[in-house]
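User: I've been going back and forth on whether these two constructs are worth ordering. Before I decide, could you fold them both?

Assistant: Sure. I'll take them in the order you sent them. The first construct and its structure tokens:
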Amino acid sequence: MHPIRRAGRRLRALPVLLAAAALASPAPVRAAAPGRHALGVNIAAPSDWDPTQPYADAMKSARRFGSVARPYDEKAAVDARGWPTGDAGVVVMVGVPHMAGTYRLTFTGQARVDAVNTTDRRTRVGRTSRDAGSNTTSADVVVGPAEQNLFLTFTGQAGGVKDVRLMRPGHGPTELFSQPFLARLARFRVLRFMDFLQTNSNIQVQWADRSLPGF
């Protein structure tokens, strides 16, 4: 995902996290409840290689779309919202263990979807279906037990696929943050957002640099 889009997504999620932080940091200071640490925690910057994987929709921390042959090159032509305008590939996760399970993929358009550069032969795309009325394609992306990478390619859709979502196992379409991520945060009373928002390297300068709603 493009750095500007990454930062914009984090900024849109900030009110939710700040509310959680406020609830987790009552005043005056008192002893931590059993199971909670009277300490703060840094939240890592979301990325495809971050083991935290904070979002319920894995596409929210994916890289910018790349070519089909090299999804990691981030060279696919994209529209104003960041969706590809032709055949493309995308890096969803790299070097992230313990992410096995069946992910639910949906997108606007009709394209062939493949999992490439896998490290586990059991990683695959299956149960593909299409709703012609809404022009929506759905599929199961099965991530094998030994898999640590997830690269997807989308081919055959004129104008490229749009609105790609990849919900993690056990997560519904309305969930923003992953359940394991929230469970880990619940142990702490203070959250630090410097890395999450890339305070020291945020490249957004102008209002036009922001990510638009809906992506």
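The second construct, handled the same way:
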Amino acid sequence: MNKPAHHRHPQRAPIGNLRARGFVPALGLSPRGFSRAGAYGSSAKTRGFTLIEVVAAFAILALGLAMTMQIAAGGLQQTQQAADYSEAALLAQSVLDTAGVGEKLELGETSGDWEGGFSWILTVSPYELADLGDVAAVDPLTSPVRLVELDLAVRWERRGKQREAHYRSLRAMLPETL
């Protein structure tokens, strides 16, 4: 007994009949009666993202990029600030090293400017030894050496803010060189 091809498997509907109703197995597209999406609804809902999902994804991406840019900008600002303080320290070392060299160190205040917007004020004052209690203190009138304090303030301006760094040093001087 020969049955037609479409009757060999009675549990399945013939493919030709399904195609006529809109079912395309390779693409997973099916008409309303033949949903392949299961518990998630029809395949039209599972094919892509909704507009709200795309907008939310872009908003999260934009927020992440903005935070990354803010962190990078803060890092650059801190790097510039560290470079300024390093330059101020090098300039201060230069002033403190040359103070009193080749010329008499005068008590009082002197100042100057450097390139790059840096300026300095050097204050030279006698240094007073603290009271040492029972330990015999050095009499400043009979001692062959006098201590002077060098207080150097370096100032500069960046982005409208005034910056300042202080450096202090002691110098032992002979009384006749003061």
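Notes on the second construct follow. Strands lie at 108-113, 119-126, 146-158, 161-173. The longest strand covers residues 146-158.
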